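Quick start: load a record and inspect it. Here is THH1/TOM1/TOM3 domain-containing protein:
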Amino acid sequence: MTEVEAVVALNLKEAHSWWEHINESVKWQDSIFHALAVLYGLVAAVALVQLVRIQLRVPEYGWTTQKVFHFLNFLVNGARCGVFVFRRNVQHINPLILQHILLDLPSLAFFTTYALLVLFWAEIYYQARAVSTDGLRLSFFTINAVVYVIQISMWLVLWWKNIPSIVILSKMFFAGSFLSVQNFLVIPSSSIAITDAACFSTCWAGVSLVAALGFLLYGGRLFLMLQRFPVESKGRRKKLQEVGYVTTICSLCFLIRCIMMCFDAFDQAADLEVLDHPVLNLIYYLLVEILPSILVLFILRKLPPRRGITQYHPIR
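Running the structure step on this input writes:
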């Protein structure tokens, strides 16, 4: 072994030891989980403050898309905050299915929150092209209903009896059925023993990929439409930047979630639902929820005008 190879091997060993030391330290685990709780709490507070500001600006309107988006952000981040505050207690809850519910339910709400943004953009895009948008809201509620029903069904199956093979088939069908609308996802069959946690991860990999494709499809369409708009103005440029930034952020967010869920499903070293992987949890939740939420809330911070609102749509 050369001197350079020896130095590289030593550095890798030290890095591995550092990683293992943090993962096995109860103090580090609690510190990282509490740091995540603080970050989620701050994001929830920002979303709530913005919701109140919007309500004070346009009290005459009901539950608009913008208000619902910020309210769901508050719920998602508030729930995550609570889970990480009591993360060690959550890990010891019995039956085991309650752990899955507490850890996965905010992910369902996160999907709904940003699917709402895709719906809003799709409505703007089709209205600008004088195309009927009557079926968009029905599609939005139908897709969310299917996602929730299948996820709840899987929880009930696991509560009744842990049958990994049946759950795996259901999850793979779930991931593939949505992707057949726009593309397909091939999950290789193998004889690897997969736990029920891996089944949930496989499910979320498919859902996350669909969400990323949705942002690319409608965010990209709206961006190109605004780019071709003949009138040059400051408002147009700002809207163009807003759509471009949010599309990029959300697409990357759900794509990273998809990739991480695939590793989580088939590699125990990447398991996110255990206490002794705090650094991995910190990286994962920062990349797929906290940073995207902060950036999107900052980009969409502009309040609606008081009168003459033409692009402010209430949810009926």
